[in-house]
Structure formats: structure tokens, C-alpha cells
Design a protein that fits this description.
The protein is mostly beta strands. It has two domains: 17-61 and 175-259, Sandwich (Jelly Rolls); 70-165, no CATH class. The chain is built from three helices and 18 strands. The protein has helices at residues 2-15, 93-106, 149-152; strands at residues 20-27, 31-41, 48-58, 70-74, 82-85, 119-124, 129-134, 140-142, 158-159, 162-165, 178-182, 189-190, 193-194, 197-201, 210-213, 221-222, 228-237, 251-259. The strands form five sheets. Strands 1, 3, 15, 16 and 18 form a five-stranded antiparallel beta sheet that branches. Strands 2-17-11-14 form a four-stranded antiparallel beta sheet, with no helix packed on it. A four-stranded antiparallel beta sheet has the order 5-4-8-9, covered by helices on one side. A hairpin with a 2-residue loop joins strand 12 and strand 13 (193-194). The longest helix is centred in the N-terminal third of the chain and has 14 residues, at 2-15. The chain is elongated. The two termini are 29 Å apart. The relative contact order is 0.27.
Length: 260
């Protein structure tokens, strides 16, 4: 009789309507905790799973910051050296060139008569390498002292007049993938180790534009906890689990929890 009662209870549980919960979380940081009040009750007799429904923010991830933002040059054959510091931001090669040339103009190190610059930074799209071209015989670039040399793909050296192409491809993108971590899920692995990554993607917009990421097919992963949900921790990282720097932009995302 007791066995029959247990079977009937299991059948009853299976016939109950599916449970669904939607959670919208937002923050101006890329690592935050949200307390659920009152706690979300989950039936201990059921299994639950979670998926990311959408994520919204702005593409403000910098690829130029204090680790790679200086450009050192000499206008007089190496007698004096000047350092250009680029503001933290999201740059492409053309924008790096424009910022460097803006400083050259401010420093008076350009041809004001013909409105021409003696140094130009460009990209060779065929080789994926950066090019630095110097057209004045007295100008030099100390790539070794310029923190930006790794981004441009140059080995440490001093560049004189002429056409110079980097030895390595441009390393303009430090983030290859954005990972969304959620502490209450299970069944996720990163590089062979357990890591609570609910979703990963790369923005399909240009820097400064709005990111609206909505998966076409939701991927549900089992919850790692049972009973009540009192707190949810979210982290946004790159592929190496380094926290993203969105420079204070608001991140909002929606999660869906359902009974399996």
C-alpha cells in the first residue's frame, strides 16, 4: 500500500503544471550579487533548469588602456623624445592613427604648410599586420619604449624613415568571447574544468553600439542548488575568465528558470 501511495504521488507531480520564473538582473559592474526577497521557493521533488534569455549593454570594452597606450617618437633624430598617451578606449587602427596624429599636430610636429603628417599608422589587410610609415628624415619611433608595440604587432626596435610592417599580426582584440557566469547552475565546463558559464558570445556590433544578445535557441542547464534561491551571483568575463571592463555601462540580463 505504501509503495502504491508513493507511485501515485510521483504521478501527481508529473501531472502538475510546469513552473516558470523570469528574473531580470542589472548592474553597472560586471560582477554583482542580487538578493532574492522573498527567497524563491523551488519544490524539492522537482528538477529545475536555467537559461539566459537576453543580455543588453553597450560595447565599451577598451582595447587600449594603461597597459598599451603610449607611443614614443623623436622629431630630431633621437636627440629628444616625446611620449603620446592615448586615452583609454575602443580603437581600430584608423582611430589609433587619428589620435597619434592629433597629438603630433598639437606638438607642432607636422607640416602645417601642406597639412601633412610625417608619420602614418595603417593596416595591411592582406597580411593582417600594422604599418608605420615615416616620411621625414629626422623622425624616429621608439617601438621598444612604446607600450602599444604589442598591439601593433612590432618587436622592440627603433624605426627610422621609410615603410615598416610589424612582424606579427595586429592584436587589436583582447576579448575573443564574452562569458556569462551564473553561480546557481551546474553541468558547464570551460577548458576541461567545471565553470558555471550559462552562455558565451561575441558582440556583432562595433565599439560604442548597443549589444542586444538574444539566443535563438535557449540552452538550459540544471540548477546546482535545491530548495530556496536566496541570492544569484553574475560575472561577465573574457575567454580567460578575466572580468570585463565595460567602463560603468549598465548591463541588464533576463534569466528563465523552469521545472524540467
Amino acid at each position: 500500500m505504501e509503495g502504491m501511495q508513493k507511485v501515485l504521488e510521483e504521478i501527481r507531480e508529473l501531472l502538475l503544471p510546469k513552473e516558470n520564473y523570469s528574473l531580470v538582473l542589472a548592474s553597472t559592474t560586471t560582477e554583482w550579487s542580487t538578493n532574492i526577497s522573498p527567497p524563491m521557493y523551488l519544490n524539492p521533488k522537482r528538477n529545475y533548469e536555467l537559461a539566459l534569455v537576453n543580455l543588453e549593454t553597450y560595447y565599451s570594452i577598451p582595447n587600449i588602456d594603461s597597459t598599451n597606450n603610449t607611443f614614443v617618437y623623436s622629431p630630431d633624430g633621437g636627440t629628444t623624445w616625446k611620449t603620446i598617451t592615448l586615452p583609454t578606449g575602443s580603437y581600430e587602427i584608423d582611430q589609433i592613427n587619428a589620435e597619434v596624429q592629433r597629438h603630433l599636430k598639437e606638438n607642432g610636429d607636422w607640416n602645417s604648410g601642406t597639412q601633412e603628417y610625417y608619420m602614418n599608422i595603417a593596416a595591411n589587410v592582406a597580411t593582417l599586420r600594422a604599418v608605420v610609415e615615416i616620411t621625414n628624415a629626422t623622425y624616429r619611433v621608439d617601438i621598444a619604449a612604446s607600450l602599444i608595440h604589442t598591439t601593433l604587432g612590432f618587436s622592440p626596435q627603433t624605426l627610422g624613415p621609410g615603410y615598416h610592417e610589424g612582424e606579427n599580426p595586429v592584436n587589436i582584440l583582447s576579448v575573443n568571447s564574452i562569458l556569462v557566469h551564473c553561480n546557481i547552475i551546474n553541468g558547464s565546463f570551460l577548458n576541461g574544468g567545471r565553470e558555471p558559464v550559462i552562455y558565451s558570445f561575441f558582440p556583432n556590433v562595433s565599439p560604442g553600439e548597443k549589444i542586444i544578445e538574444s539566443p535563438n535557441n535557449l540552452v538550459y542547464l540544471p540548477l546546482a542548488i535545491g530548495g530556496n534561491i536566496q541570492r544569484i551571483d553574475i560575472r561577465l568575463t573574457d575567454q580567460a575568465c578575466n572580468l570585463l571592463n565595460l567602463r560603468g555601462e549598465t548591463v541588464s540580463l533576463r534569466l528563465h528558470i523552469r521545472s524540467a
